[in-house]
Amino acid sequence: MDLHGIDLNLLVAFDALMAERSVTRAGTRIGRTQPAMSAALARLRGLLKDELFVRGPNGLQPTPLALDLAGPIAQALTGIQRALEFTQTFEPSTSTAKFSLGLSEHPTFALLPALLEVLREQAPAITLRIRNFTARDDAIAMLDAGEVDLTVGVPPTPAARILNRPLFEERFVCVVRKGHPTLCPPLRLQSFLEHSHLLVSPENDSYGVVDAALAKQGLKRRLALTLPQLYAAPLLVARSNLVATLMEGVVAASGHSERLCVMPAPLELPSIPFVLSWHRRNEVHPAQRWFRDLLASVPPRAGLRPPSGGTGT
Question: Helix, strand, or coil here: 286?
């Protein structure tokens, strides 16, 4: 293809459309009107002889060719921006930058309130958009697509293009309702196995950390209920005779800890690390570096432990 016929602005428009999946929002993102964005999309379609984006129930959906082009075009634009703005400094106190942050359920409760307080003090004009995700590798897909600048969750599957920084760890505790007819501390393994359990699995698995630890001893527990929502579990335990093994921070932040008996688990369980992740293409950008360092400096909710250096679960 003859590069002399390609307008760089078309690639900027493509990158915005890939991130926003809406002509209107993409135009707002890069300061163009909706007609201008529609015209840019029409030119791109003619140039590449592909629809690139088709309307779907949740906005524009990229075609396979658009997905193939997304990464290389984003990297090319980042390289150009890096070359033109490498020496640019970032001043948070006056910046009107926009950042997108992907959060799994627990970091939303553990980090977001403190982050907003720090932003209010250091960068009051910055706009923050939160996107949620559940499965750990959803973070990789969001970073690859440019939908978010950073994510916080359990470590995703290792990928050379995705960089990680440990933030905090959570330990597991066992909970039953106060006044449980048979269980009381200290919790013994035999009693633990004699009761029905609640399993929380955001990724909808039916086999968790506890089950893996029990399997090493040739043991199994009976699962009476599995659910994907972390913060629903404490209330359900408080209103039943189920046993649940939950992250300690979830119990503390749920608002139901006074109705629960919290006990150490009767078997050895690993801590769960939470990491900050970003795409390599954002590694050197001054604003991105500032936002990463800021988020890493925000203290998580009281009671969470700093990382021990391990990243496995």
Answer: helix
For residue range 117-134, what is the model confidence (pLDDT) as tens digits? 999 999 999 999 999 998
66, 68, 175, 286 from 72: Cα distances, Å:
10, 8, 49, 21
Instruction: Say whether pTM exceeds 0.85.
Output: no
3-state secondary structure of 152: strand
Closest by CA to 157, choosing from 143, 170, 178, is: 143
Question: Nearest-CA neighbor of 95 among 281, 294, 299, 296?
Answer: 294
Considering only CA atoms, which of 26, 18, 3, 21 is closest in space to residue 66?
A: 18
Strands (E), the chain: 53-56, 59-62, 98-103, 127-132, 150-153, 162-170, 172-177, 196-200, 222-227, 243-247, 260-263, 272-279
Q: Are strands 150-153 and 59-62 parallel, antiparallel or unpaired?
A: unpaired
Which residues make Cβ contacts (< 8 Å) with residue 53, sequence separation at least 6? 17, 21, 41, 60, 61, 62, 63, 66
Residue type present at position 67:
L
